[in-house]
Amino acid sequence: MSGEDPEGADLQADAEAVTAANQRFYDAFERRDIDAMSDLWVHEDSSACTHPGWPTLTGWASIASSWATLLANTQHLQFILTNVRVRVNGDTGWVTCDENVLDGPGGSTVAACNVFVRSPGSLDGWKIVLHHGSVVHASLG
Amino acid sequence: MSGEDPEGADLQADAEAVTAANQRFYDAFERRDIDAMSDLWVHEDSSACTHPGWPTLTGWASIASSWATLLANTQHLQFILTNVRVRVNGDTGWVTCDENVLDGPGGSTVAACNVFVRSPGSLDGWKIVLHHGSVVHASLG
């Protein structure tokens, strides 16, 4: 296919790279690795992060502070991602997925969307610029 | 400025068009106008919508069905948008905002992000491809 449809092959490669960056985000979260988390983000005023139930934090300074708080927790944390869907449009990609979160004795499902921008030189070639998560209430939808 | 920095002027014009498309989304929601809402969306399998507390709906068919249900409600509904922030990256734009929702006797704040893709020929030149809203719990963040 790649010889006949280079544009399609590029899109596929981009989608795989965005998927890898998305997985890296959850790996850093699970490992509570603040340095890895920091490396994954675009450090700009326009970056945005909405943790479940939180107001939207804008700007890297506010977002970094929230991660420092969240990742300082030492409770066991594991993410099993399901329904991972990726779309790339030029130099922007976004992922929707379900975060099936196992933390301590309980568990919950968080619906998430993550927006990435192409960032040559970064680990996967893409950095996260927006994260939004919200707890799914099973009685709805 | 437009004569000296055409790229900056284009970016500004794109940001204004995305802001207009975002406002049109809430106008359609407030008026419970299913046709206007339908016109605003990209009708593709990759479109995604997460209403507060809901699981993520993917694909236009599922999303359209959810809007038909939500917009059929006849309770008075008003959105006052605050903290509207727009970013454009090529042919993709996204908005974060707070939806201050007045519905009937009560009110709530929903943190939202909306992703748009450039769509020549549509009303504002951009269509929405992802919406994610989650209720803000005042005790957090």
What would you say this structure looks like, in words?
2 copies of one chain form a homodimer. The first copy, chain A, is an alpha+beta fold. Chain A contains 3 helices and 6 strands. The first copy, chain A, has helices at 6-31, 34-40, 60-72, and strands spanning 48-50, 57-58, 77-89, 92-103, 106-118, 126-135. In chain A, strands 2-1-6-5-4-3 form a 6-stranded mixed β-sheet. In chain A, a hairpin with a 2-residue loop joins strand 3 and strand 4 (92-103). In chain A, helix 1 (6-31) runs antiparallel to helix 2 (34-40). The termini of chain A are far apart. The model of chain A has no long low-confidence stretch (mean pLDDT 93). Chain A binds chain B through residues 46, 48, 50-58, 66, 83, 85, 87, 89-92, 94, 96, 98, 109, 111, 113, 115, 117, 129-130, 132-137, 140-141, and chain B through 46, 48, 50-58, 66, 83, 85, 87, 89-92, 94, 96, 98, 109, 111, 113, 115, 117, 129-130, 132-137, 140-141.
Fraction of residues in β-strands of chain A: 35-45%
Return Rg of chain A in Å.
16 Å
Q: What oligomerization state is this entry in?
A: homodimer
Which overall shape of chain A is indicated by the principal axes computed on the Cα atoms?
globular
Show the largest interface: A-B, 37 and 37 residues
Mean pLDDT of chain A: 93
Helix fraction of chain A by DSSP (H/I, runs of at least 4): 25-40%
Outline the low-pLDDT stretches of chain A.
Answer: none
Separation of termini of chain A?
A: 39 Å
Major sheet summary line of chain A: 6 strands, mixed
